Amino acid sequence: MKDIKYLMAFSVPLTVFISIYFRGIFSYTSLLYVFFLIPIVELFLPTHQRIFSEKESESRLKEKFFDWLLYLNVPIVYMVLVYGLYSFAKSDIQPYEYLGFIISLGILLATNAVNVAHELGHRNNKFDIIITRLLLLPCLYMHFTIEHNYGHHKNVATKLDPATAKKGQSLYYFWITSVFGQYRNAWQIQMKFLKNKKTSFFSLENDLLLFLIYQGFYLATIYLFLGRGAMLIALLVGVISFLFLETINYIEHYGLKRKKIKGKYERVQNRHSWNSDHILGRIILYELTRHSDHHFRASKKYQVLESLEDSPRLPFGYPMSMLVAFFPPLWFAIMHPLLLKME
């Protein structure tokens, strides 16, 4: 019964629904929940470190409950998203409601779409691949799993990885280098795949080309049924969602480096990712915050990710860390002393 706690992940879509349905000052419910209430509560809650026994891990891996929690995000995300876009197209939205309205939908996609796609994107069965793509579609970031799985996990904490923030790099500059760098890398990886398969660029094997078509069709469908304004909102919401993702990338690996040994980078270890055991962020993000173990063993499912003892630790949970990262001087002042201790 203790794993019922993961139902808390659906609290974010609930607050987004409240933001859209009640509007007015309630338009900012989701924003306040994620970036005010959760950070404050986490400051007072104890962190919880956990190592599973082999028997516990085996039992948790057999339990389908954990998978269905992820799959449920597809209907929930799409219902709330469509409701939001429809409300925008058919209702008289006041100017002061726009910001809360758009950011709320961006938060929805960042937490319950991109984040869940990140978890399922490491699995190889066809059903999980389809779910991953459905979740990444409205985020306009379908190339993510290609670069993440074959680029980021290979090159993390090196100069070759655009998704690893360098020491002294601001979040805003990182957004530019990471977004465009990862997209470029995704195409390079895709072209290698096509070359190895001896397949034409214009073929069903070219996933990135198909992704462009899918995303274009998604936006065109919104335009057709809900109009230009709703399509522009969908575009903005998608951009906000992947900028939130990149903000998480920023805090997950900021300033960490892998050493070179005889001209080659050392093997990826848990010390090459920042870890967080703050409980609300852990639950709502399906243990994404135990990122050190994820990079150490990328195939591990979220329900068996552990808090490895020698992992570098963020001083705050993910929501608070993201907030701090929006103010580069403050972020540097907090993180650089921690990096010095690790050198």
Features:
343 residues, mainly alpha, two-stranded antiparallel ribbon, 63% helix
How would you characterize the largest beta sheet? Answer: 2 strands, antiparallel
Average pLDDT figure = 94
With strands numbered from the N-terminus, the spatial order across the biggest sheet is: 1-2
Which percent range describes the beta-strand content? under 5%
User: What are the secondary-structure elements, in order, as H or E?
Assistant: HHHHHHHHHHHEEHHHH
Helical content class: 55-70%
Shape by Cα distribution: globular
Compute the separation of the termini in Å: 42 Å
Helical stretch tally = 15
What integer value in Å does the Rg equal? 20 Å
Structural class: mainly alpha
Describe the structure.
It is globular and about 60 Å long. The longest helix is centred in the middle third of the chain and has 27 residues, at 171-197. The chain has 343 residues and is an all-alpha fold. The chain has a two-stranded antiparallel sheet. It has helices at residues 11-22, 29-44, 54-62, 65-71, 73-90, 98-120, 126-136, 144-155, 171-197, 207-226, 228-253, 279-284, 291-296, 318-325, 328-342, and strands at 260-261, 264-265.
